[in-house]
Amino acid sequence: MQKPKPGSLLASVRTPADLKKLSRKQLPQLAEELRNFILDVVSVHPGHLGSSLGVVELSIALHYVFNTPYDRLIWDVGHQAYAHKILTGRRDAFHTLRQLGGISGFPSLSENEYDTFGTGHASTSISAALGMATASVLKGEKDRHHIAVIGDGAMTGGMAIEGLNNAGASHANLLIILNDNGIAIDKNTGVMKEAFLRSSHLFEAFHFHYFGPVDGNDIPQLLDALEETKKQKGPKLLHIITTKGKGFREAEKKQTLFHAPGRFDRNTGALIAEDPENRITYQEVYGRTLLELAEKNKKIVAVTPAMPSGSALTFMMEKFPERVFDTGIAEQHAVTFSAGLAAADYTPFCTIYSTFLQRAYDQVIHDVALQKLPVVFGIDRAGLVGADGATHHGVFDLAFLNSIPDMVVAAPMNETELRQMMFTASQYKAGPFAIRYPRGYGFMKASEWKQPFETLPVGKGRQVKEGENIALVCIGQPGNFALEAARQLEKENIRPAVFDLRFLKPLDEALLHTVFRQYPFILTIEDGVMQGGLASAIASFAVANGYTNPIKSLGVPDRFIPHGSKSDLYRLCGFDVEGIVGAVKEMVG
Fold first, then answer.
1. Are 314 and 284 in contact (CB under 8 A)?
2. CB half-sphere exposure, 155, CA atoms < 13 A
3. Which of 14, 82, 191, 344 is spaced 20 to 30 A from 458 at the CA atom?
4. Integer Cα distance of 529 and 518 in angstroms
5. Active-site residue flag, 465
6. Catalytic residue among 33, 57, 250, 331
7. At a CB cut-off of 8 Å and minimum separation 6, what does 76 contact?
8. How far apart are CA 351 and CA 349, in angstroms?
9. From CA 78, how far away is CA 84, in angstroms rounded?
10. Is 204 designated active site?
């Protein structure tokens, strides 16, 4: 467990009450110690680094000036809240960051009283803070402050603008701190970044009292500015300029890479490789395949809401920059923008994290599916994503897409299948085509995945292993767990058959009839919520066709799943290899 050095200022600070005992002159030294403590821990226990390094001084100043938690502090997205967590009673638990049973990488209402609102998605802080500030007006709490810290990247989200519009017409005691560091994960896009150069006019037009800009990495300037804002009633905005990755040279130079770098050498900044087996990530397979398809078809374009590097669109960006569109943190706009491209005879691959696609559900239905437009949805980080936890798990997409008419819903079992589904989707013109795939490495070697393009029959699954007694019916990556479980069970003279459905919609009913007629027991396996997902689809099929075979389902249960490693969470949900083996034994005796 990493601990502050004995006798250091940080060793004396466990809560904001301890912080307030220090003199203003001691705070820069505390900031240096706090920054080094974050680096010591995050280099070993990976998390979001650059954003938290950039707001160390701000975190200290806010808790020094305001009476938290009575004064409510909300961190937009919240991936920058590590210093905040350390200063609010979680210093000694910080080494458990993002691990199963440890502290979350994001603010959480259930974790600590200083986390006054749970965050994880961008652009929500202004609305939440305004709601709380309005409640204080109704209660007559005239001395209570409400602070929303939002980055310039998150300010590109439409919800932030909606919150500004509403807040400017209120009399709520609300302070917005615009943390302007010139970058989100990748470079900011659009004109908002230019508008911030004229911030006083922009925000005064929204009826905010404007303060700044000030150096957000200079504690004396911050303290003075915050004390001044406290005196002003009503909605106000403090514009601060910070450096993402502040204080660690490699993080300042390579801001995108050090947003969430994984393990790295604390002294040199060199990344520590995570893959000793020469494997390849699903994201790289997606990005390289999309480039190949774009080379063959000039009508293929790519759209992403601020995730070009995370979703590996950088391959296509380098060769065809004019055909890759980063809309900023604007998921609703990204989907409808894609619909417009499709209506004009282009083939857009709208590449978006599963957890963020939730934010554009209406647009998927109203603007894409209702009009049967051929938008391809590349749904990245589907399933349990691991350490980012409940706000980022992509476990709902199978269920919420399965209910939409004319929507193809596909999930590859491996990297080659992802490639072939992308090729198939690029030719499909009957309506939207969604392909969901997991985060990180799969099971194939880097030399194996790139097979010649093949058009898959839409709505048709396949049997990947023969067997008897029981059928394991899978969709997506868990099919690999089922195959390994079947191999282990064969050592005990149990021979499950394994089926890879490939498509949840349209469902391969012909294959399912074969399954129900030939196998007395059915076990379904998926890495999404079972309610509305594969489990529900198979149960509905069985009822509709009069089958009475015993069915057991494994997948994500009806509760929010915490943070932890993916293997820990697969085990927690019961659909890892061991869980499948146990379920089969229970069914067949």
1. no
2. 28
3. 344
4. 27
5. no
6. 331
7. 119, 122, 123, 124, 125, 126, 148, 149, 150, 151, 154, 160
8. 6
9. 10
10. no
Q: Which range, of 110-114, 259-263, 530-534, averages the lowest pLDDT?
A: 259-263
- What is the overall mean pLDDT for the chain? 95
pLDDT of residue 260: 87
CATH 3.40.50.970 spans which residues of the chain? 10-259, 279-445
Q: Which residue has the higher pLDDT, 578 or 199?
A: 578
Q: Give the C-alpha separation, 586 to 565, whole Å.
A: 27
The tens digit of pLDDT for each residue in 538-558 reads 999 999 999 999 999 999 999
**d(Cα 313, Cα 305) in Å, to the nearest integer?**
11
Is 537 a residue whose pLDDT tops 70? yes
Residue with tokens 């919609």: 505
- The upper half-sphere exposure of residue 520, i.e. CA atoms within 13 Å in the direction of its Cβ, equals 7
- Under 8 Å between Cβ of 514 and 462: no
Map 122-161 to HEC letters: CCCHHHHHHHHHHHHHHHCCCCCCEEEEEECCHHHCHHHH
* The model's pTM: 0.94
Query: What's the pLDDT score for residue 381?
Result: 97
Q: With beta carbons less than 8 A apart as the criterion, state whether 426 and 297 touch.
A: yes
Question: Per this entry, what is the length of the chain?
Answer: 589
Q: What is the CA radius of gyration of the chain?
A: 25
Secondary structure class of 86 (helix, strand, coil): helix
The pLDDT tens digits of the residues spanning 503-533 come to 999 999 999 999 999 999 999 999 999 999 9
- Per-residue DSSP letter, 369: I
The hierarchical CATH code for the domain 279-445 is 3.40.50.970
Query: Is 331 among the residues known to form the active site?
Result: yes
Q: Between vectors from CA 550 to CA 546 and to CA 555, what angle results, nearest 5°?
A: 110
Residues of the chain with CATH 3.40.50.920: 462-588
- Which one from 72, 98, 244, 419 is the annotated catalytic residue? 244
Phi, psi dihedrals of residue 195, rounded to the nearest 5°: -65, -30
Distance CA 388, CA 119 (A): 12
pLDDT over threshold 80, residue 276: no
Q: Which residue has the tokens 């502290």?
A: 103
Q: Read off φ and ψ for residue 21, nearest 5 degrees.
A: -80, -15
Q: What is the pLDDT of residue 333?
A: 97
Active-site residue identified among 35, 246, 359, 502: 359
SS3 at position 542: helix
What CATH architecture is 10-259? 3-Layer(aba) Sandwich (3.40)
Mean pLDDT of the 88-104 span: 95
Phi and psi angles of residue 531, each rounded to the nearest 5 degrees, phi first: -75, 110
Distance, first Cα to last Cα, the chain? 45
Higher pLDDT, 111 or 3: 111
Q: What's the fold here for domain 462-588?
A: Rossmann fold (3.40.50)
Mean pLDDT for 337-344 is 98
Amino acid at 425: A
Note whether 154 and 77 are within 8 A (CB): yes
pLDDT of residue 390: 97
Q: Note the pLDDT of residue 548.
A: 97
Whether the CB-CB separation of 109 and 75 falls below 8 Å is answered with no
Q: Would you place residue 170 in the very low, low, confident or very high pLDDT band (cuts 50, 70, 90)? A: very high
In the predicted structure, residue 274 carries a pLDDT above the cut 80:
no
